[in-house]
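Record minuted for completeness.

…
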Amino acid sequence: MVLLGLPGRGKSSSGNTILGSERFESVSGFEAGTTETSSKSARVEGRRVQVVDTPGFTGQVLSPRKLFEEIMKAVVEASPGPHAFIIVVRFDRISEADIKLFKILPKLFSRDASKHMMVLFTHGDALSGRSMDGLIWSNQHVSALVSMCGGGFSVFDNTKKGNRVQVRDLLDKIDQMVKTNGGGHYTDEMFKDGPSIPVKIAIRWRQIGEWFRRKIRNLDRRRDRYTPLNQPDTTELNKMD
């Protein structure tokens, strides 16, 4: 599985929770901690699980091109292809940028990527007994985000890494998604036969590099515009560029 998301959403910490040990460097706070794509694996719940951690989607740490290259490497690291793209979101700090990211990914990877996407809400400890389902469906933009992933989502409390129930829940939902997809993993024609991977990534950059730069700038502008799950919608997200 490939972990994707904005900086400070808990990707690395979630990767450690999944693998059951501190395999990725995790930095607390809202700024980027991961600056390059890395892959770790471990035996989890009786199976071999590979987790690919990626830099956060922002132009404030890496250049847009370097960020693009690292994100593209995630598919290579998950060779022959990831079974799931896990979009990591802080449930208590969902921003317009989090929601816009879901609209960017299908073009970044390909439209088929949407079939392999799932939402992972972190900071589940802040739920304080509330129903995640109820909070999701109380906000049209967040519910639309989950619907884009076929309704698939899980919740993690990364302060309780020993709670394996949450990990089993995620793996079970990934299994169901894989089954729905006919048992296959995500594949991209770009990474099949032909030039070397760096050459292919460079070609892809020439095709969509300017688009990617614009989208990253847009995400950075919207990172601090929050859409609280338990408050009425105040943004017109469908009109965003």
User: Anything to note?
Assistant: Residues 64 and 75 are 18 Å apart (CA to CA). The longest strand covers residues 38-44. DSSP finds seven helices and six strands in the chain.
